[in-house]
Amino acid sequence: MLARWPSATGPMGSTTVSLIGSTGSIGTQAVEVVQASDGRFEVVALAAHGSIDLLAEQAHALRPALVAIGEPALAPKLAELVPPGTEVVSGPEGLAAAATAAEVVLNGVVGFAGLPVTLAALGAGRRLALANKESLVAGAPVVQQARATPGAEIVPVDSEHCAVHQCLASVASVDQVARLLLTASGGPFRGRDPASLAEVTVEDALVHPTWKMGPKITVDSSTLMNKGLEVIEAHELFGLDYDRIEVVVHPQSIVHSMVELVDGATLAQLSGPDMRLPIGYALGYPERLPVAFSPVDWGRPVELTFERPDRRAFGCLELAYRAGRAGGGAPAWLNAANEVAVAAFLAGRIGWLAIAEVVAETLDAFDGAPIDSVDAVLEADRAARARASQAVARRAG
Ligand code: MG
Fold first, then answer.
1. CA 223, 227, 230, 231 torsion: positive or negative?
2. Most buried pick, 20, 251, 300, 389, via CB within 10 A?
3. Closest residue by Cα to residue 371 from 331, 339, 337
4. pTM above 0.85, yes or no
5. Separation of 230 CA from ligand 1 center, angstroms?
6. Distance 88 CA to ligand 1 centre (A)
7. What's the CATH code, domain 15-156?
């Protein structure tokens, strides 16, 4: 099956790309990047979970050879909507085919569901433009094995890690890094009294001060769990121990992260809060796209401020450090519990403060089982979801 869509250089030296999760927030911005890049990329595969109308619209605009839909029941309808001659595939196998069809694979799937895409792309020796941090966090031991496949490479799309990736390009070895400073906007509840956070609504949590993103990551930003997952992501991507990964709140979201070196120098990457830049960086790496997305306007006053996160109000950050340091299956439990808790919060079943409570309670029940296979990752995810669902049910009343 895989041999039918070989990794190939497209016409006129363009790079072939697969956009997985193409109808989501990252995916639609990736389409904009491709369209702005003047033939530099040839989209050979598109994939989405269930949004067939937008997926078909993208297929007409980009003319990929292959279109994959996660929900198999939607495949016949999709086949009617795409241009004649487009191959339509579905289900996990279809997504895997899309995830191995190109030289560069963007994983823009939301949540743990992105793990098969990450594993398929790396296992086929592709460059993975990774926007799906949950697959790396939860499946780290098996993702690291797949990453060792010849030709496989992860270029992070997550803006903080993309910034660190750029900074590290001028650093000879990881020994020269004193610490990574991951910046956080602080989310909509920065500076709030912890007691006042009991009453926040879904609408409050979905208003992000600087970034426009999907609902799951926006809620994660409001709890700082997003930053917690990013601490684990940074540990896995760059191989630094947790004592050398710190979080600093930077409300303007212009400095996307920093690397402090052993000689006291600090490197940083700056730009406006616009995901099209890291998406373009990851798709084009090691080349830079000659298209500027939201450069900083230095002609007017630019204020850059930094402060420590309030670890009392935002317990999820501490929980993530705890899970990361425990290693093994603990990050998978953390991630699964958080996905369950965030879904319950978005559905109006639990309050905002209960997200951290559900995650803490679930993590307390972590059975310590190691993760050495994909099945073990799936089992850890399943067990943690069951525990977290109980914790939600007790609170939902
Ligand atoms: Mg980020």
1. negative
2. 20
3. 331
4. yes
5. 7
6. 32
7. 3.40.50.720
